[in-house]
Specification:
547 residues; two-stranded antiparallel sheet; six-stranded antiparallel β-sheet; 58% helix; elongated; 12 strands; Outer membrane efflux proteins (OEP)
């Protein structure tokens, strides 16, 4: 996995993080830093680790174990492609050697001895290969040394050498480039699908990191706002005591102010818990706990949520999603595999008709037997007279090298041509597999259509959410300004005696809630933008992530 825009290695990045964590940073984003500095802690204050959104994504991709595991799947699929291709294009060399000896009593004079002693030494080698069209070609070189005590043996010992080229090729079943490349194509599709699966996992992780990062930003700013509200309540508490001393407010106002302070303190505790929860989620995504104890540092986001008041287009988004969503690519590859399965199953229904052909050369040599051939007759004719003119035993006299010479002389040629046919009766298995394959194709088509329909609905829903969130932000901002003016009026009225402490406390509370709602809508807008990028298939492009 490479990131072209941010070329920071894992070791360098972790070393940088370690160096940052050792130091105490004095300048951080105001809201997050205030939230971190004011957190109560029984021991020394934890180190602050400023971190940007980009660095958060990098760390998550470098450290996430599930991504590391999923990265191995394409490598496994590559080996499967090599295996399927090797079945056709990788020749196979074979070699065998052996020796045997036997002694057998003979019950026939044709054995040439009462007890037949036979010794064999065989040394054979050959090379074979499958072609992409389905045929098998083999070249075999066979050698034998034969020795026996039979009186009918012409040579003692006898050497034979044979060289044969054989071709076996299907003509119906298992025939053709299109059929025999099916397994390779399926393996290639599985490889591509595994890469899309990896991209989907990385996309989900990137979106999850972004959303969690903005949750930390919201929690940090919300905690700062809650603490500021507590400070306002404490200030009002002191002012109430002073006004009561001046007899400008009744004594019950002190109880109201004290109650408000307690409520704000409880509210701060809730904000601290939410901040800690968001911190824990982000730290878990970054997987930094393996190198650093999470309790020893606090992540301080350096990126602020940006409001880009631009609407998104459903049409453009759907066009982008249909062209870039990884799930669609995977579904299309699966459908292509199912179509290849139909092609394979249809071919298996055919009869098995094979062409078989071979051509070979042979050679023979040996030491002529010491027993004169003239003493042996066949039908009253001496054996020596049966041999053709010029082909007596003296012409084959010699050892293994002479046998090779006879072989390569080309005088002893043999060939074979034939067809073999096998017709399965019934063939229920093949027909069942063909029917199953066609049903799987129909199923894959429906899955793809359903996925496209759901994707269209998803694009429309997310686009509607992004656009409506913009309007919500405008309304939340206007409400916050209005509530802030009411607080100013209530505070001025308190000094003039026309407002009560309850009015001021209510206005403070409403302002805190309005600020929280405004921040929440801005954060939700940024989170929805991350979801929108995922929906239209550009989440990785934003961070220039290449897999």
């Amino acid at each position: 996995m490479h990131n072209t825009a941010y070329a920071l290695g894992a070791r360098r990045m972790l070393a940088l993080v370690a160096a940052i964590m050792i130091l105490e940073f004095g300048h951080c984003p105001q809201s997050a830093a205030q939230a971190s500095r004011s957190r109560p802690s029984p021991g020394p204050a934890p180190h602050e680790l400023p971190i940007s959104l980009v660095h958060s994504v990098i760390l998550a991709l470098q450290n996430n174990m599930e991504v590391k595991v999923e990265r191995l799947t394409p490598l496994i699929r590559e080996e499967e492609v090599r295996r399927e291709a090797g079945a056709f294009f990788a020749p196979r060399l074979n070699f065998e050697a052996g020796a045997d000896r036997s002694q057998k009593p003979a019950g026939s004079v044709l054995a040439g001895a009462q007890v037949a002693n036979i010794e064999n030494i065989d040394v054979n080698t050959g090379v074979s290969s499958r072609s992409i069209t389905g045929g098998v070609v083999s070249l075999d070189f066979r050698n034998k040394r034969f020795e026996t005590n039979s009186v009918f043996q012409l040579f003692e010992p006898q050497y034979t050498a044979e060289l044969a080229l054989t071709l076996t090729h299907p003509l119906l079943k298992n025939f053709g480039v299109g059929f025999n490349a099916v397994r390779i194509k399926v393996a290639q599709n599985n490889l591509a699908s595994s890469k899309y699966q990896l991209r989907s996992m990385v996309t989900n992780l990137v979106v999850n990191v972004q959303q969690t990062y903005w949750d930390v930003v919201f929690a940090a700013n919300d905690l700062t706002s809650r603490r500021h509200t507590l400070e306002l309540a404490q200030h009002l508490q002191r002012r109430t005591v002073e006004l009561i001393r001046q007899a400008r407010l009744p004594a019950i106002a002190r109880l109201q102010a004290n109650t408000a302070v307690l409520e704000r303190e409880i509210d701060v505790v809730a904000g601290e818990n939410a901040f800690e929860d968001a911190q824990a989620r982000l730290k878990a995504l970054l997987s930094l706990e393996k190198a650093f104890p999470p309790a020893e540092y606090t992540l301080v986001p350096t990126d602020l949520p940006l409001l880009e008041p631009t609407t998104v287009s459903v049409g453009e988004g759907l066009k982008s999603a249909m062209a870039k969503r990884h799930e669609l690519f995977q579904a299309r590859l699966d459908q292509e595999n199912r179509l290849l399965g139909v092609k394979f199953a249809q071919n298996q229904r055919l009869p098995e008709l094979n062409f078989v052909g071979s051509i070979g050369l042979s050679g023979l040599a040996g030491t002529p037997s010491s027993t004169p051939l003239t003493t042996f007759t066949v039908g009253g004719i001496p054996v020596v007279n049966i041999l053709p003119d010029g082909q007596n035993t003296d012409s084959f006299d010699g050892g293994y090298s002479e046998a090779l010479g006879k072989l390569f002389s080309g005088n002893f040629l043999s060939y074979k041509v034939g067809l073999s046919l096998q017709i399965p009766l019934g063939n229920e298995i093949a027909r069942s597999e063909w029917a199953k394959a066609r049903l799987e194709v129909e199923k894959s088509k429906m899955i793809l259509e359903t996925l496209e329909q759901n994707l269209a609905l998803e694009v429309e829903a997310v686009a509607r959410g992004v656009n409506s969130r913009l309007k919500t932000i405008e309304g939340a901002r206007a409400l916050r300004d209005l509530v802030a003016k009411k607080l100013d009026m209530a505070q001025e009225g308190l000094g003039l005696g026309v407002s009560s402490v309850t009015d001021v406390l209510e206005a403070q509370k409403n302002l805190s809630l309005a600020q929280r709602d405004e921040l929440k809508t801005v954060i939700e807008y940024n989170k929805l933008l991350a979801v929108w990028e995922k929906t239209i298939g550009i989440a990785l492009e934003r961070f220039h992530i290449e897999l």
